[in-house]
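Q: My labmate handed me this sequence with no annotations at all. I'd like to see what the chain might look like in three dimensions before we decide whether it's worth expressing. Could you predict it?
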Amino acid sequence: MKTLSGFEIEQSEIKEDRGFVVDTTYVLFFLAIEFGRSFSGFTLDSVFLALTLMMLIALPYFLSSGEKPNFANWLLDRSLIAGFAVLFGVLFQHSLGVILPETFRFLPMTFLIVTAMFSCYIQFYSFFV
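A: Here is what I predict for the chain of 129 residues:
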């Protein structure tokens, strides 16, 4: 009986870590879309967005507890997600005014803010529980 309950506790801890990873992946995705949409050369805001994007690719690996995947695989997976999202952001910028109305340009930042607030809520909830 003890081994079964110990196994359940271990599984719940792993599920919590995976929730953290998925949670930060959404924030990474929408930040990369916003970066691709708003990139206009190497201006100060583009540099800060790029630095934030690089930090969001690597730093959640060190914050998660429990069983961690290989760091190289972690970077590759998250870099592919970010690269795809930057490409999607560039395509989104080019479609504004042609396919989509111009007012949709605020949509990636809106989704970024909502997912960041949701991520913050999940992190504080898991911290206090």
